[in-house]
Amino acid sequence: MGKFIIYQMFLRAFSKSNLPESSLLLENYRCDFNSCGKFNNVTEDRILELKKLSVSAVWYTGVIAHGSKSEVDGIYQGNKSIIKGEAGSPYAIRDYYDLAPELAEDIDNRFSEFDALIERTHNAGLKVIIDFVPNHVFREYKSKTDNFSDENFYLLSDQLHLPESLGGEYYENPAKATGNNCFSPYPQINDWYETIKLNYENKDTWEKMLRILLFWLSKGVDGFRCDMIELVPAEFFGWAISKVKERYPDALFIGEAYQIDNYQRYLELGKFDLLYDKSIYYDTLIEVLKGYKGASVLSEGWKRLGQMQSSMLNFLENHDEQRISSEFMVRDGMKAIPAVAFSALFNKAPFMLYFGQEFGESGMLEEGFSGKDGRTSIFDYTLVPSINRFLNGKLTKEEKSIYKKYKEILKSATTSIFSYGESFDLGYVNPHSEYFNPEKQFAFLRSYKGKGALVVINFDSQPADIQVNIPLHAFEYLNLKESDKFNSRDKISCKIASYDYLIIKL
């Protein structure tokens, strides 16, 4: 199958609106102004385009019913006093057994439209991933299928008092703890006041969450990106994932984890297939791209991760992180190419990209609740300019160039050498010299079944003439044969452009 590549699509913002560019700056981020992406927007052609990008699975974000200010006939979306933005957070689930109605063209047949989306995705050979939010639910959670009771929450000793700035009224007595572990009846504006934390001291909570997982798998979903797993006991995941895999052995579980000290626990005890690698390669690559650290620090990552490397999910963007091309990061999508090449090619770990990243989306619109923060808002109905241009066949020249680079990198990443091969970091045998600057360049080998490839990455704003030394030990470790052209006696010379990478087959 090759390296697993995940494409995160925030479905609500995957819209082909024909609004003029100026309308992308509308201050009113309502569904009826900026439109809303639909299940049916993700056509067979769009999915096949993802296939050309070497994508293996699509993470459809925001599909489950959540608190929203959107007006939908006959469906209660929640008290507006506790909803962030116009659309509401997709991580404030109001009914785990329902779909967000605004994503359907025919609301009464929303499950049929979602079923058809799953079928289109599967027909293209891609897997379907959705969110599982085990730590918290919307403060007004109501389900006709399987509801929660007070015993599933942490009850506090006083009435809930929301921040005055929210306006409106909301009564809750006794108050319940918020999803971000605010055990106070006085949550602040930055608390997750729209959510209630679930109580895993009650085994009934375990059973309810297992039933939710099984429900969505029965609908054809292939796996889950599990939200904020470090706020939930690893023991629950170990139990639930084991139960799920008795019936669905191929079900995929990806954990959103941030602390490397927790990685081993959630892989072994929690039985996750993959974990976010936020603490090592993401954080390090961002520092290298910003010039805070030299490229040589990347060598520390594989030493710290050890055998866990292949269980990490490498990424440079998702809905929580600032866009790599934003003014808060590197401002230019091409400058991110070295980091993309490293993330996708250095080891066996899968790679994830966020919709629009492949075009250099900047995420710099002034967006309702979030403001201008370098992210694509998850709280309002916003359009994503690069996605909008792509869907309307109007990508800029620069966006097309960035897209081409992503296609090249990910196509290489899915070949056998980069999917299954061993890695050898060449940093220690290539110290600073006239022809190699370890603060700006990084080089490594990959090999599989006697075939090898040398990868050279340039994080510099200037092109470089590079000479790379490959020690005899590398050939022995990777079971590669020396040749007249590639051996441990001569350095390999190459020219590399600014913010670029090279793959040289051995």
Give a description of the structure.
Helix 9 runs parallel beside helix 11 (397-413). The two termini are 23 Å apart. Strand 9, helix 6 (260-268) and strand 10 (274-276) form a beta-alpha-beta unit. This protein is an alpha/beta fold and 506 residues long. The mean pLDDT is 93. The chain has helices spanning 31-34, 44-52, 110-123, 203-218, 234-247, 260-268, 278-289, 298-305, 337-345, 385-391, 397-413, 416-420, 472-477, and strands at 5-10, 57-61, 64-66, 93-99, 127-132, 136-138, 195-197, 223-226, 252-255, 274-276, 312-315, 351-354, 422-425, 441-448, 451-458, 464-468, 492-496, 500-505. It folds into two domains: 5-153 and 198-414, Alpha-Beta Barrel (TIM Barrel); 420-505, Golgi alpha-mannosidase II (Immunoglobulin-like, Sandwich), CATH 2.60.40.1180. The protein contains 13 helices and 18 strands. An eight-stranded parallel barrel has the order 1-2-5-8-9-10-11-12, surrounded by four helices. A four-stranded antiparallel beta sheet has the order 13-14-15-18. A two-stranded antiparallel sheet has the order 3-4. Helices cover 26% and strands 17% of the residues.
Which short descriptors sum up this protein?
2 domains, alpha/beta, four-stranded antiparallel beta sheet, TIM Barrel, Immunoglobulin-like, 13 helices, 506 residues
Helices and strands in order:
Elements (H helix, E strand, L loop, with lengths): L4 E6 L20 H4 L9 H9 L4 E5 L2 E3 L26 E7 L10 H14 L3 E6 L3 E3 L56 E3 L5 H16 L4 E4 L7 H14 L4 E4 L4 H9 L5 E3 L1 H12 L8 H8 L6 E4 L21 H9 L5 E4 L30 H7 L5 H17 L2 H5 L1 E4 L15 E8 L2 E8 L5 E5 L3 H6 L14 E5 L3 E6 L1
Parallel strand pairs: 1-2, 1-12, 2-5, 5-8, 8-9, 9-10, 10-11, 11-12
Antiparallel strand pairs: 3-4, 6-7, 13-14, 14-15, 15-18, 16-17
Helix pairs in contact: 4-5, 7-8, 9-11
